[in-house]
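Predict the holo structure. Ligand: adenosine monophosphate.
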Amino acid sequence: MRTLPTIAGLRAALAGARASGATIGLVPTMGAFHDGHLSLMRRARARCDVVVVSLFVNPSQFNDPADLAGYPRDEARDAGLAEDVGVDLLFAPGPREIYPAGFATTVSVAGLTDVLEGAQRGPEHFRGVATVVTKLLTIVAPDVAYFGHKDAQQLAVIRRLVADLNLPVTIEPCAIVRDLDGLALSSRNVLLSERDRRRALALSRALDAAERTVLTGARRRGPILAVAQCVLREAGVSPDYLELAHPDTMAAVQTIEGGALLLVAAHFGAVRLIDNRLLAEQQPHTHLPESEVATPVRAPTSA
Ligand code: AMP
């Protein structure tokens, strides 16, 4: 594996493969790799001739300077993990490479960025995400780019911008990877205290409870949200939002007809976590291809 800090170096490294018709897969990340990131890389490895992982902690998508300053970083460890799963190129630019002096162009996706994470974190968050992802897709020009369902609204924003801008790339969504106790893996989990990590389990338990309610026939928003809210309340968790929304538009929905996302975000101390579950009228997961089914990967770790 080669680590490349410049756009010119990356493009030069890909030129031969591209000319020979090799398929190029891109996994955009902000580093601090865990098994969620690695599952995306493994999927890319299985399906593409050349796998590129980008590692860039994008300052423009952080609405909270303390969150940016405290974001976990360990490029040497990340490089080792990426190499172990067979990544070919690690693109690890500095902020000046991505945002040189005079940088003035942004990409903003209207509508679905106004709610949920957009409402909580402000318009700069998804503008930052959309801009950096558009740049990465333009820099790497992959055939396929891999994104996690973990960031469900981000996935919807990226699908929208790829369609709207006619970018020639296939977006491959990947299942949420969880610890054995249900906590969705996140780079921020290492920042949780032991007590907050236990409390954070209420997020996946709330999603589980809602899913069980659907299995017993619930279809409407009110009862589904009430069940999830009850689990959160019992754990003393007051969510930033708990919402049932359309997976593509993120608009609130009144029933789960055709499939709806239950999304939750909450603070645990200074650490903000998100999670979500697709609720459908079928049995859970039976409607999903194998690659979209979440897999517990390892024993839970305490912070
Ligand atoms: P990040 O480094 O947090 O920006 O994440 C990079 C990519 O990994 C995004 O597409 C995320 O949705 C995805 N990702 C993060 N956590 C998980 C997880 N637990 N399971 C699956 N994908 C994830």
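The beta strands are 2-4, 24-29, 50-55, 89-91, 144-148, 170-174, 241-245, 260-268, 271-279. The CA atoms of residues 239 and 266 lie 4 Å apart.
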